[in-house]
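Predict structure. Chain length: 267.
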Amino acid sequence: MTSTLAELSTAQLAALASAAQRGSLEPPVDLGLGPYCPAPLQQALGKELEQAAAVGIRGSSLAFLLNTLVRDRALREARTPLVDLVWTGPDIPGNPSRDTRIVVHEMFRKAKRSVLVSTYALYDGRTLFDPLHETWQAHPDLMVKLFVDIKHGEMGAPPADTLAKFRHDFKAFHWPWARLPEVYYDPRSLSTDPAVKSCLHAKCVIVDDREVFLTSANLTEAAQQRNIEAGIVVNSEALAARVRDHFMAMVSAKLVLLLFEAAWLSP
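Prediction complete.
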């Protein structure tokens, strides 16, 4: 009997349970399943319900069984992280995935407590961060942390000059607003020693310690709108905590350093 019921949605199972409680699923039921079951499954489900009735599973007993399946389904759905596929690239007819830029902006707009962003490349950040800035104005207690890669400047330029240029460009082109987020970088990216030099290549967004976007896409117009990029959004407090805690552990261990403190800039 459960083979056909497994094909039904939780809402359809709940509707069947209500119908059984009302006595609407008494044999013969093959003609009365239209409101509760897709047409291709109605004949098979009707036979299974009649078999159940033949052994005494009908009425309130059937409703109890169906409601048990509904509760079990709900518990499984609650424990299973909700995962959504996200793409950048040419539109494909019938493709159910979501667009990278839209997803990032949606996440920024719904934030209430915290936002953590990590990116390797940053281009035209003002456009990309504008929804986050608006959200921050609406929720002044929001904590915003950015982890960025800083590429070494011209050959021979000291790290201090490279950092100074990044600070200027960040405030001029990426975050021109008065209130600054916390910004961190990996100091190894400024090393000229090939054995030491590395980059901060992780790309992710975490909102309210619940929703996590892991993606190949940087915070650039090309990556957000034109390149072929793939990622997933996962609604999971456990995963969000693991990713957040890893970043903050790097902060505590001084593996990444603070470039900007969260602060208001003087006029």
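Summary: The longest strand covers residues 82-88.
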